[in-house]
Each structure stands twice: as structure tokens, then as C-alpha cells.
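Troubleshooting log. The previous structure file for this entry was overwritten by mistake, so regenerating from the original sequence record. Sequence copied from the archived sheet and checked twice against the printout by T.R.
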Amino acid sequence: MNHFTYVEIPTLNLKKAEAFFSKVFEWKFEPMRGVSTVMYITSINQGPGGLIFKTKTIPKKPSVIVHIEVDNIDEKLKAIEKSKGRTILPKTLIPGQGWYAYFATPDGCTLGLWQTLLRAA
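Regenerated output below.
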């Protein structure tokens, strides 16, 4: 109880966001029944569920940053850049714990990446 259960990621264009997240993170999506502006992420097996939703604007300054756990931040940042996203903060070490980085989706939503020290190469 009292834990995060859902993450909502804003986007200006659902089709482009779906293509970006599918390519970079291999997520699968399903439209929300009766709501044309929302796509559920259906391939997340652990942690909170999530969705992307269409909005008219993306906040210029994030007030909360959601982190996506990955096996290799370096590889994900390359995939993000290749898919028209951009690195905001490069891979940064938290001693004894792991690494994090910030990136922007193609339409400017800021998200984070996390790689635990145990998975580090």
C-alpha cells in the first residue's frame, strides 16, 4: 500500500510516441477503450503500469522525473539519440548504487534512466 502504481507520460503525438518507446524500450501498446487520446503500455511486467497520453503542451521544466530501469544506460542513450530523443544529463554515478541519466523524448518530455551497480559492465 502507498506505493506508486501508474506512470502517465505526456506526448504531443501518440503515434510518434508509440513508435519511439516501442523502438527504444520494446514496449507494446494498446488503445484505451473509448478514449482516443490514451495508449496503455501492455508489456511492463514489474513495477508500476503506465500509459502515454496526448496533450497540447509538454511542461518545459519537469517537477517529477520518472526513471526507467535498464540493463545498459550507454546503449539506451544511443538508441534514444538514434530515435530523435536527446540526452539531457549523461550517465552519472551514484557511488555504491548505480548510474542514472536524463533524456528527452522527441517532443520534449523529460524522463530518467537507471542502471543498478550489480548490472554494470
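The chain is about 20% helix and 35% strand. Archived copy saved in two places this time.
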